[in-house]
Amino acid sequence: MTFSIHGLAVARGIAIGRAVLVASSRLDVAHYFIEPTQVTAEISRVRDGRDAVVREIHRLQASIAQMGPKEAPNELTALLDVHLLLLQDEELALGVKRWIKDRLYNAEWALTSQLEVVARQFDEMEDDYLRERKADLEQITEKVLRAMRGVSSPVIQPPNRNTRKSSQQDLLLDDTVDVPLILVAHDLSPADMLQFKQSVFAGFITDVGGKTSHTAIVARSLDIPAVVGARWSSQLMRQDDWVIIDGDAGVVVVDPSPIILAEYGFKQRQVELERGRLARLLHTPAVTMDGQKIELLANIEMPDDAVSAIKSGAVGVGLFRSEFLFMGRHGKLPNEEEQYKAYRRAVEGMQGLPVTIRTVDVGADKPLDESQRNDAHLNPALGLRAIRWSLADPAMFLTQLRAILRAAAHGQVHLLIPMLAHAREIRQTMALIDHARVQLDNRGVAYGAVKVGAMIEIPAAALTLKVFLKYFDFLSIGTNDLIQYTLAIDRADESVAHLYDPMHPAVLRLVANTIAEGRAQGKPVSVCGEMAGDVSLTKLLLGMGLRSFSMHPAQILAVKQEVLRSDTVKLTPWAETVMADDEPGKRMSKAT
Ligand code: PEP
Ligand code: MG
User: Fold this and answer.
1) Which residue has the higher pLDDT, 147 or 456?
2) CA torsion angle for 313, 317, 318, 324 (degrees, to 10)?
3) Which residue minimizes the CA distance to atom 10 of ligand 1?
4) Range scoring the smallest mean pLDDT among 107-121, 125-139, 206-220, 569-583
5) Quick one: how far is CA 479 from the chain centroid?
6) Which ligand minimizes its atom distance to the CA of 531?
7) How far is the CA of 64 from the centre of ligand 1 (A)?
8) 3-state class (DSSP) for residue 549
9) pTM of the model
10) Which atom of ligand 1 is nearest to the CA of 484?
11) Is the pLDDT at 170 greater than 70, yes or no?
């Protein structure tokens, strides 16, 4: 039966494919594709894991048999029997084999996928007793997973493709063609998303998340259609369901009818055509109709993203979110050498164009790893995040600063500091940058000159620009956080996503003032938050005087098209009237 789920549009385009549900975080496992030659080994891994658990239960049963009825209650004996029955269940075993053989899922992924299929059948049972056996099923699956951990799987790089062969008969699409896969999850951390970066998915859907959550930002950088905040998706969908993602409308259509499928197939081709048209602008300089040169820069998360930045026609990197090098490493942070190599790769990848490396910004919705994610801080977005974290651990910060300064010997590097609010923090940061230089001098290690800039992303910073302009060479407005902190809206929380409003007059005022004050002092100002890549805001930002935009590479050509159609002489007075309105958003929609 066809049904649709509404969420938040985060990455544009249409994707049509089969749902791949990744397990809940309780059974967080690695998801990757194996090679056909590894099928037998993966099936054996599951079998060995299961056999180990069966042996453990037999051992327990034997020791229970020697106990008296007081120490070994009947319930325990019955429970172990149930666990044995479930472990030896044919459907579980056959299903796991199918996922491995037909879909080439790794053993853990196959096991958790089949767990979901069987768990749903339990959910639908009338009998309370049987329904409650689902918890037992989850327990034994966890045990098998744990037993499998001892049997390591070969490390396999996920293949760089976004389709897999479907082996199942299908009425909607020809079985012989590659079928795109769509990732469906309750939630994905930014680190998970990063893992999917070299991966196979044609789109993704999550139950939770806001439009400018870091997960959504990484998804956007993958340039695949995505919807977040599509509540209950992972509950309502089943493994292998056909799904359409309409990334423009933020809608997910499950089990579409042939008519709907044809309609979206048409839309998908239109999107492709539009991309083709935009590609013609690749070498066109970004200059407005009245001759203003506009700098269009790329936001990147990993050094190798420099390739897509160059391909998109970016004239530099305006924001390298270095924290992605620090995530998912189980507390083992990258050392100076590793960081230096990574920054250097990005710098060299940009072929002489400038690279703005932002110092680590972990915390809030960017935990270092899962253990930190579960840390129950009351208000992580207001906690030890970004520069606060760096200043709290000077040794770690100095390591990063030295690595960045060393990379600057290989090309143009700008150093960007996130989340500053206090003059005291600025002075401490500057002192540590000087100290990092001294340390390198003492070691006789080469390093390069850097321009140092500050993110303006806390209202307090936007309201005290004087001190920022005194110390820094440039400013970069982080609108994602500026909106979050100005409007008191958690950017990662889909339940307040309707209040996350870049067009709020307070936000516009802070952005406009920052641009104006920076320009008045002759200091470059850019916007590197998601507002910069939103084509519906390009003209307004140009009208406010912005001349430097940094966004994920996939948006650059669309923004360039807007720039080419703009006349800043007309836009300047118009932007003033928009900002003077009580509801600038409404005025904008009337004007466009
Ligand atoms: C921002 O806050 O706008 C920004 C660019 O930084 P991040 O999204 O990484 O917090
Ligand atoms: Mg920010």
Assistant:
1) 456
2) 130
3) 481
4) 125-139
5) 17
6) 1
7) 58
8) strand
9) 0.78
10) 2
11) no
**SS3 state at 203:** strand
Å from CA of 281 to ligand 1 middle: 27
Nearest atom, ligand 1, residue 481 CA: 2
DSSP class per residue in 291-359: --B-EEEEEESSGGGHHHHHHTT-SSEEEEEGGGGTTTSTT----HHHHHHHHHHHHHHTTTS-EEEEP
The alpha carbon of 212 and the centre of ligand 1 are apart by a number of angstroms equal to 8
Continuous segment of H or E residues that includes residue 104: none
Place of tokens 């894991």: 49
* SS3 state at 266: helix
- Please give the distance, rounded to the nearest whole angstrom, from the Cα atom of residue 456 to the centre of ligand 2: 9
Atom of ligand 1 nearest to the CA of 386: 10
Give CA separation, 262 vs 171, 173, 266, 268, 269, in Å: 13, 11, 6, 10, 11
As for ligand 1, residues whose beta carbon falls within 6 Å of it are 217, 319, 321, 361, 457, 478-481, 528-529
Dist. CA 414–CA 66, nearest whole Å? 71
Q: Quick one: pLDDT at residue 166?
A: 39
Q: Is the pLDDT of residue 371 over 70?
A: no
508-550, pLDDT tens digit by residue? 999 999 999 999 999 999 999 999 999 999 999 999 999 999 9
- 457 CA: nearest ligand 1 atom: 2
User: Which DSSP letter does residue 374 get?
Assistant: T
Task: Please indicate whether residue 214 is annotated as part of the active site.
Answer: yes
Domains defined for the chain, CATH in brackets: 3-26+162-276 (3.50.30.10), 36-148 (1.10.274.10), 289-476+504-567 (3.20.20.60)
- 3-class state of residue 253 by DSSP: strand
pLDDT value at residue 197: 65
The predicted structure's pLDDT at residue 69: 62
Of the listed 186, 214, 414, 504, which one is catalytic? 214
Beta-ladder partners of 416: 358, 453
Q: Which of 523, 522, 551 is nearest to 538 (CA)?
A: 551
User: In a 3-state reduction of DSSP, which class is residue 578?
Assistant: helix
pLDDT band at 161 (very low <50, low <70, confident <90, very high): very low
Instruction: Name the catalytic one among 31, 186, 414, 528.
Output: 528
**pLDDT for the residue numbered 322:** 97
Annotated active-site residue 414? The verdict is no
**What radius of gyration, in Å, describes the C-alpha atoms of the chain?**
27
* Burial grade of 451 (CB within 10 A; 0-12, 13-18, 19 or more): middle
Whose Cα sits closest to atom 9 in ligand 1? 321
Query: What is the average pLDDT across 393-401?
Result: 97
Instruction: Tell me if 213 sits within 8 A of 491, measured CB to CB.
Output: yes
